[in-house]
Description:
Elements: H1 2-20, E1 22-25, E2 29-30, H2 38-52, E3 59-60, H3 63-66, H4 76-83, E4 87-96, E5 99-108, E6 113-123, H5 127-141, H6 148-155, H7 162-175, H8 182-198, H9 203-218
Parallel strand pairs: 1-3, 1-4, 2-4
Antiparallel strand pairs: 4-5, 5-6
Amino acid sequence: LIVINLLPRNKQPQEAIILDKSIAVLPFQNLSNDSSQIYFCEAMREEILNHIEKINLFSVRSRTSTDQYRNTTKNSVTIGQELKVNYLVEGSVSLIGNEMKIWLQLINARTDEHIWSDDFIREKRQIFELQTEIAKTLAAELKTTLTPEEIENIELEPTKNTEAYHAYMKGRFYTNQPHDDFNHWNQALKSFKEAVDLDTTFGLAYAELAKTYAVFYNLRYDFSDSC
């Protein structure tokens, strides 16, 4: 009787801790009328997801898991149950000239209640500060104390050149499109080349450029020595 009574009590709090901060970042809406800015909308979702993944107490669902809910009519409770998460992040993004605007909301997927929402308006060059601020805000709203190491990882900037970073994000957008489309890979190649031209020390851009060249070779798009 002692064993039967104790085991469920020990297991339940442990499961609650694991599930308490499970999060899914749903596809963002593009507030801009400019279809060429779709890349920025998609890239910002991916980068925000990458930032909150650096928080150890968060269990974050992958981008590919949440892509199915683009333009969905399902409610928050249903999505939460299907993804096995307790919290959803929804958002809208626009990039007009040098101004970025992001609207986010945090939803309790168990009750369909809004926990928090806010607008962020920043200059284009402040993109790293914005990503860091959003990750820290979500942590605070979910009562999560960040460790010094987590803060350092969240605040880490991959490049000092924001224009190079925007080119990199555009390249990442195209590599996430259907992989058998030459035009997507060609656009990705151009974007990564632009990124490394703007910042010759941008390691992530070089890595993506190398992967794109490898795809060109494997898909028989290009057999030149440069590949």
